[in-house]
UniProtKB/TrEMBL annotation:
<dbReference type="InterPro" id="IPR015424">
    <property type="entry name" value="PyrdxlP-dep_Trfase"/>
</dbReference>
<protein>
    <recommendedName>
        <fullName>Aminotransferase</fullName>
        <ecNumber>2.6.1.-</ecNumber>
    </recommendedName>
</protein>
<dbReference type="InterPro" id="IPR015422">
    <property type="entry name" value="PyrdxlP-dep_Trfase_small"/>
</dbReference>
<dbReference type="InterPro" id="IPR004838">
    <property type="entry name" value="NHTrfase_class1_PyrdxlP-BS"/>
</dbReference>
<keyword id="KW-0032">Aminotransferase</keyword>
<comment type="similarity">
    <text>Belongs to the class-I pyridoxal-phosphate-dependent aminotransferase family.</text>
</comment>
<dbReference type="InterPro" id="IPR004839">
    <property type="entry name" value="Aminotransferase_I/II_large"/>
</dbReference>
<dbReference type="Pfam" id="PF00155">
    <property type="entry name" value="Aminotran_1_2"/>
</dbReference>
<keyword id="KW-0808">Transferase</keyword>
<dbReference type="GO" id="GO:0030170">
    <property type="term" value="F:pyridoxal phosphate binding"/>
</dbReference>
<dbReference type="GO" id="GO:0008483">
    <property type="term" value="F:transaminase activity"/>
</dbReference>
<keyword id="KW-0663">Pyridoxal phosphate</keyword>
<feature type="domain" description="Aminotransferase class I/classII large">
    <location>
        <begin position="30"/>
        <end position="363"/>
    </location>
</feature>
<dbReference type="InterPro" id="IPR015421">
    <property type="entry name" value="PyrdxlP-dep_Trfase_major"/>
</dbReference>
Amino acid sequence: MTAKKAESAPYRHGGDVWSATWDGKIPMEEILDLSANINFLGLSPLVRQAIVESIDQVVHYPDPKCRRLIEALADHLTVPPESICAGNGAVDLLDHWLHAVQARRVLIPEPGFGQYERAVVAQGGVAVPLPLDEKRQFRLDVEAWKKALREEGCDTAILCTPHNPAGWVWTEKEKQAVLAHLESSPVRLLVDESFLDFLPDGRALSCCPQASENDRLAVLYSLTKFFAIPGLRLGALITDSDIIKGIVARRDPWVVNQLAQAAGVAALADRDYHQKTWEQLPQERNYLFEQLSKLPGLTPLPSDSNFSLLYVAESGISSTGWTERLRRRGILVRNCNTFLSLGERYLRLAVRDKAATDRLIEAMRAVLAEEGML
């Protein structure tokens, strides 16, 4: 393993539709964005209504205590309000938590969300990669994780479930094994649950109840993915109330704007939207998996979330090649070459509806035909 403390290369994130349309060659309405893992249902009608009804309130400063939002989050996550801190997206809260616990050597799964490393390095810490086994489809090996914590001398760890970019979710047994390790070691753990709402039984696998009572355990929760509001930036951190108080005391008091607070309350209350997602996602995900599996040289990995990791090496086209050629057809996919262990061999694709998948498959077939593979 190679720990990282020096400045990292710039991290590229999915969802940059602005760069794709900047030169005016492709109109925004013609872009199919599969590079960001956002709910295919789009904006909830209740959220849209809440935003419209809150427009006139932007003449006032937003509630610095996010009272209505915190109450809604406490009910949704089944934790005390004092153990919740709302923020300008999950990444904002990642930075604050790392600073609050003074993380120094942080064990991070690789491949994993690039902002983990960026945040650790920005705080003056050392990011220690934990290589996930490609033969196991990058699933977490809890024993290997515990061994790495010990041998690398890490005081902090970050885990993600469902895992980004591989899409697996940990089992109850794996969860309990990880939590049990915290009882016998001084390690602090942040569990990123940004995609857990996409599972109907996700709350049962959440660490939120435990995190609200433990100053060495925290959970990152995002509302932007499941509720399709990335442009509003909204997330939450769940941990011991004393740590929450410390974070709130040192940051901007108006970090969550009024429209985001109103949208969050409405989103959490829209049970029909939740249920519709849980009913339709498995069908759309399976359809994407089946269609990709039919294409020569392409191998999708099974996923429990709303995205799929796609192995493209056998197609003879690099991930950068695929990204550029699909982009010319108005389709954005996540080039996984920014995940160090994936190189030019993988793409990540968001699950969308059947029409979007059919458009993707048609474009991929055209690319493969150009290469003489069809």
